[in-house]
Amino acid sequence: MNYLIRSKLVSIIIPTYNRENLLHRPIESVLNQTYSNWELLIVDDGSQDNTRQLIESYSQKDSRIKYIANDRSKGPSGARNSGIIQSEGEYIAFLDSDDEWLEHHLLDSIEILEKKNVEVCFSLWIEKHAEKEIRVFDPLHTQNNLKQKASLFETYKNAIIFDDRFFEHYATDDGWFYHINTMVIQRQVLNRVGLLNEKYFTGEDTEFFIRFFAESKIALINNYHFLYHQTPDSLYNFFDRSQVDIESLCKDKALCDKITNSGINSNEIRLMIRKRVQQSKRIKDKKKCFRTIDGAIARKYLTLSYINRDDFRKSVYFCLLSLRYRFNKNKILYLFNLLPFRKTRAINQMELDFY
């Protein structure tokens, strides 16, 4: 990479709340980057622990690290927006306060952004559950999905460069390859797409992505750049979704409530995507897009119905919503079996969605 590219400032934004015991992890991963021209803005969303003292101990050693108190609406969107507004870099990257980048993340991302003149770059991630690492994109069906993308779009080294057909492709894709913590964007594109929507407490990142997907040149690096840690207090990744014991889960009301709230929010985002598909003038096969989106909405509502099956009204409500988006005779039988005098409430678990 030439000197001109290495000279461009990257603003890294970490929103945080009461993460004194975990914050060292993302900070150290930034310090270990092979790309060194960055500023790190850690935005404190009203922490009650020693978060500020920890950040200031780092900033005293490295002036690139800055403490910012969030002055916008509370939550990750407001904190990230505070960071964006006060940042100075030509590029902006995001990292959560309990996660970490691999050392090549910024260098490889900036190279693709510059060499291929793209506006947004993503890469892959490894899920970490305590000491267990899950290489999410290693399974054969996922690799085949990536190969299909590479056959449809331009490639450069290990990156896939999407063009204006991407939004339609995304709307019919059953894979998920996009994470805000691997996202590096050109600052100037925010003049067109705007900041994060602060009304969302979870799912705000997906809503943010969709605005880029519909009108920006995007790259996906087919390489692992990020360690995504599962912690009980994460807003989304608060349990191991790859190893779901449904019967145990249904007995844990607090966990069911968290999954339910997360699922409702996920479907709000899907409905927003559906609306954008409907409004798009570029998409050729809207029916295919609607089938994919409606199927995902229906699976999510059915999942919420099933995990809440001991709450008759709530379970029936979610099942009816699922039927609205995808009619299925098995759901009618399941709905009948929800009646209090019935004992059998089983459903094909292949129809459920915990992601």
Automatic annotation (TrEMBL):
Signal peptide: none annotated. The keyword Zinc-finger does not apply. InterPro entries: Glyco_trans_2-like, Glycosyltransf_2, Nucleotide-diphossugar_trans. CDD domains: Glyco_tranf_GTA_type (cd00761). The keyword Transferase applies. GO terms for molecular function: transferase activity. SUPFAM superfamilies: Nucleotide-diphospho-sugar transferases. Keywords: Transferase. It holds the Pfam family Glycos_transf_2. Residues 11-136 form the Glycosyltransferase 2-like domain. PANTHER family: GLYCOSYLTRANSFERASE, GLYCOSYLTRANSFERASE 2-LIKE DOMAIN-CONTAINING PROTEIN. This is Glycosyltransferase. It comes from Paenibacillus lutrae.
